[in-house]
Amino acid sequence: MIDFIKRIHPLRLAPVSPDMDLFVEAACQELPFLVHEYQSGLRLNDWIIPQSWEVKKCLVDGLSITHPLAVWGYSNSGEGFHKTEENEYSMFSYPYKWEWYYHPEICDWGVSVTGNYIELECEKKPGKLYVLEYTIPGRSDAKVILHAHNCHAAQANDDMSGVAVGMQVMKRIKSFNGKHDATYTLLVSPEIYGPLFWMNGMNDLNKEIDGTIKLASLGGKGSLVFQKPALAQNALYMDYVNEFTTFRKVHGNDETVFEAYGIPSGSLTRYPFPEYHTSLDIPERLSPYHLKESAWAIESWIQDLEKGILPEALFTGLPRLNHRGLYRPPNDPLHGLMNLLPTYMLRKYTIGSIAANHQLDYKTVYDYIKKWEEAGLVRLPRQ
Description:
Elements: H1 2-8, H2 18-30, E1 34-39, E2 43-44, E3 47-48, E4 52-60, E5 63-64, E6 78-81, E7 117-125, E8 128-136, E9 143-149, H3 156-174, E10 183-189, H4 193-200, E11 211-216, E12 225-227, E13 243-245, H5 255-260, E14 265-269, H6 288-307, E15 312-313, H7 335-346, H8 351-357, H9 362-374, E16 378-379
Parallel strand pairs: 9-10, 9-11, 11-14, 12-13
Antiparallel strand pairs: 1-8, 2-3, 4-5, 4-7, 6-7, 8-10, 12-14, 15-16
């Protein structure tokens, strides 16, 4: 995963840019993506796909500066004296300036380098925005989307780490050789623009998608956090996750697009991290182990989804438990689960989701439900 991130990191990526063509080429060497193209100027709900943007020249006091973050994203050409904005993280790094990606009507010119006289030449012309889609069909009607964004110049953790983790997970699913039920799709695209225009072109696909997970900033050493979908009633089962929290409590972007189409959309992240949106977000600061751990977390959720361990009730209503040795008193960690288990079975929760809902160990929950099966109240599918 690190090797791919290192290959991409020097590129001056933007939602539409010549370097995005290079990214697409590199990504398609990793997986056989289907590439969707959307022309500059295409409109949807007042969102407009921007033009292709390229920095032709950046001179600061006559010295050529080529760092991808030296020029603010979608800057116009300009020349004159310029005072650099202070970077709140470090005076020795460039900030990542992205605001004009989404406000082309207010673009000016600007740089993030120290100097007096600036000579800046930028070119804007019609281009294409790309959405990369890789789908592995399953045996059932269940459809799940993993997605990550690729439009941040020189940002290793945000979010080339999410792209790399997503590709690693898809390679793992491919190794199942079709022995899985759900259909899995990985989308890689510029944030907001990509999912929005992709969904708009998919007709009634939103009625078929069961949920999405955003993969964001997964290569740092911070704790893994899963943000639940906006209206989620249940938590996902996922190993290695330290906290389950509410929608967009930590951060967010593309989740809002899918939620606007009625699709439950969570996200997995290690945000915040100190190098966020600065030139210090480099591959050398990423942790290979934590990238792998992030992939393992997604794989653990997939395993729970694929196991499909849905306890089936062999009763209607509320069963009496105490004479069967299944009652748990209020001070027992299983008390809340005991009260809700009939409801969980009606709503077809997996054992992993039940465990996550109550922040209990998977084996603890499985062993308790197994006792219900031994008492003739529940049927568990054979593994």
